[in-house]
Structure formats: C-alpha cells, structure tokens
Amino acid sequence: MYIRDIFYGYDCEIYGKNTDITTISIHSEMIGAKCLYFAHNGENFRGRDNVGGAMKNGAVAVCTDDREVIGMCGEDVTVIFVRNTRHAESFAAERLYPVGENMKIIGVTGTNGKTSVCHMGKKVFSALGRKCAYTGTLGTDIEGYEKALSNTTPPPSVYRKIIHDAASLGVEYVFSEVSSQGILQERTTHTPFHALIFTNLTHDHLDCHGDMESYFKAKSKVFWQNKCFYIINTDDPYGTRLYDDIGGVSVSVGEGEGCFVRISSFYQCRGGIAFKVTMGQSEINIYSPLYGMFNAYNIALICALAYMEGFSAWEIEYAVNSALKDPVPGRMERYSFGGRDIFVDYAHTPDALENALCSIREIYGGKIVTVFGCGGERDKTKRSEMGKIACEYSDHVILTEDNSRSEETEEIISMIYSGCDSSKTEIYPCRRQAITKGFSLLCRGDVLLIAGRGSEEYLTDKSGTVKFSDREFVKYLCRGED
What we know:
The protein is of the alpha/beta class. The protein has three domains: 3-95, Udp-n-acetylmuramoylalanyl-d-glutamate--2,6- Diaminopimelate Ligase, Chain: A, domain 1 (3-Layer(aba) Sandwich); 98-323, Mur-like, catalytic domain (UDP-N-acetylmuramoyl-L-alanine:D-glutamate ligase, 3-Layer(aba) Sandwich); 333-481, Mur ligase, C-terminal domain (Protein-Tyrosine Phosphatase, Chain A), CATH 3.90.190.20. It is built from 17 helices and 23 strands. The protein has a ten-stranded mixed beta sheet with strand order 8-7-9-6-10-11-12-13-14-15, with helices on both faces. Strands 16-17-21-18-19-20 form a six-stranded mixed beta sheet, sandwiched between helices. The protein has a five-stranded mixed beta sheet with strand order 1-5-4-3-2. Helix 13 (350-363) runs parallel beside helix 14 (383-393) and helix 14 (383-393) crosses helix 15. The longest helix has 16 residues, at 293-308.
C-alpha cells in the first residue's frame, strides 16, 4: 500500500515520494521489506536518535513528530510528520493490516484476571465449535509466531499483524489482553473490538499512573473509544462506575441481585469450585477443578460473552464444564505430593495475593507457607502492603527475588519486610533457595504458595537474565519426593 493511501484522511505532512509500503516497525534494527519506521520517543531516548540506524537497515519511510528528522533523510526516504507517532502507528497498522468483518476481537482489561479470562474464553469458545486464538501475557498461539511476546499488548505494528494473520487463517475469535500501558500508548486505538470485558481494578501500576483515579481513566479509555458491547464486573466499585458511565449495551456480572449475569451458591473444596450462573431467565451449574471465587467471576464473564453471542444456556454449561478441566498455566496451578500441596500463582498485586491466600485458607486446615517477592522498576507502594497481607493470611512467609531488574534485590525485600510480622518472616534472596526452604517446611496437610511469577520462565536482575521457572522447579522438587 502506498504512503498516501495509508495516511489518507489523517492529519499529517508528507515529504518525498509516494513510496510503496509492505511492513512497519518501531525497532530501527528490525526493518522489513519496504518498511515504514516509526520514530517514537521514550523515557530515556529521542526517536530521531534511531532514524539513522533505521535508514541504514533499509527503511524507505520514517514517521516522526520531530521536524529536524525531515532534514536528516535523503531524497529516497519519505518522511511523514505527525503530532503523535504512537497514534499514527495505530492508524497506519489499521490500514495496512485489515482484519475483515468476520473477525471478532474480544478485549479483556482490568488489574487481575486478564490472562485467565482470555485463556478460558479461548477454551470455551473452541468447545462451542468456533476457531479461536489468544494473545497476551502468555504470548500468542497464532500460527507463524513465536509463543513469547515482549508486551501483554504489543505495539500496533505487531498486534495488528498478528490479528490480520489470524483472520487469514480463518480464526473467528481472538481473545486479547488489553493493558493500561497499551491503552495509553495507543496500541489498541484503532482496533475494532467486538466486545470488551472489564474484570476489576485494584492497586497496581501506580508507578505509571500516579493514583487510582488516573489508572481508572486509563482503563476506561478503551471503552469510550469503541462502539461495541461491554461485559463488566459490577461487584467491583470501579466496574460499577464504568457501567453507570458508559451506557450502550452493557452487561453486568456479579453476585448482586440486579446483575444480568449472576453468580450464586458458590462452594469450593480441594476438588475445585461449584456455583450457579443465572443469565437472564436461564440458570446453569458450573463445576470446575479451578480454585477461588475470583475464578467464578472469570468464568461468569465468559458465560456472559457466550450468552450475548447467542449460545444457549445448555450449550454454555456443557462447554464450560467440559473445557475448563485444567488450570491456566501459572494461575493457582496445583502440585501435590505426600498429602502436601503447592500452588504456583501469578499473584503480584495486593488484591491477587489476598484472594489466593483466602481461597487456600478456606479449603485447607494445615499450615500455609508463602514465598514471594516484588518486581523491580514497578509500583513500589504495593510492596509493604503485600508483606502485610502475606503475614496476615500465612503461617510462615519467605521473602525472595522476583525480577529485580535494575534495582537491588535486598532493597526491594527490605521494603516488603517493612510491612511484615518479623516473627513469621524470613529472607532468602535466591528464589531457588527460598522455594526449597518453603518446601522443606511442609508437613502432611500443609500448603506452599509460590506467588508473583506464575508461568514466567526467566528471572532478570542487574547481572542479567537467567532461565528459571517456578513451575519446573516445583516439578523437580516433587519428583525428588516420589
């Protein structure tokens, strides 16, 4: 597609020839054939600093918000001057990588539950006979792409290409995680969502947003940008605000009497959870080997989506009960040996950690040992709060590393420790040693919760990145006990 066709109707200035474009990129070292390069500014760099590298690697056009770039490019390189390069990237990606009318993109946003809802949605809708795909924290399962993605919501140059290729493969539904950073950075601005799901909003990412009100506004933005239908957890106070404000076709989900999709009769044991879901005038019974009330909400959100898509109550009941037999990787994933259980969970926010521990306490009568840390270069205000929660609901707490990045692991642990009960807390900076110690404390009937990383396979600190999976290490420890 030619430059002037891509940017037709967009507020921009084009300098140079009407070049044919087949690929777009935001990485100066990753330039494809006939590539349009977007020179974004970052926290620690200017977009124009990378333009030379992009041209050297073959970029035939550059999109910039810096007029100095115009003079940096030769006659053979077209320059598109815009006010906001991230918004322009989203616009261009929508033009270059159309998805067609048959593709239904389901966006899921919120603090906790995005991965689980998307993973469950794909499984349930596949059981309903639809060809589905997933993209988010766990990567993507779309043919032709590596599983791993660098972001929960990738930049438009990647995100729209993935969805475009999924459409060409006949995929009908893409369940896609939508992060607040992705929304703010215009990654989904021109994505034609078929439906949007709101899970909840709790303490996280305040390093990026500053306060909860700004965080809520960032999450809400994607709803105001899209004329589709909305499925909202209205038991969450921010969900109630969104539901009241957004209007349109909004479906309320929760335990409240007024919810259109209502959860009731919840029960859980070591075998999993059971509850009823009322959808309009229909009621279904759900039985799942998953754990926690939060998973009942996740499942109910998917039931609401399926109901709005026209599936009958009995179809939904059968699909959910037959499809959700395995845990989402790294989400309250249980390993058992000798009457002792270990849960590996992604809980990295105060609310998620409390939910996980409360669910365990409700089911188990033995000792609870919790191993966790907090990531570096992320919201520091939640660290002491998570320490307090861990000690409140656990019998023993072991603090350790969790992707310290450029921060000192010991300093992060010290901030967590400030909220802990010192009488039940100890410190093992090495995560492998911390898990091993937690494992050694278990007796029959006890539980170990390893929180914060879920299915992540690498640990990063100031010295670099090493391969380490909580899940694989737990399997190794359990094999040693066989």
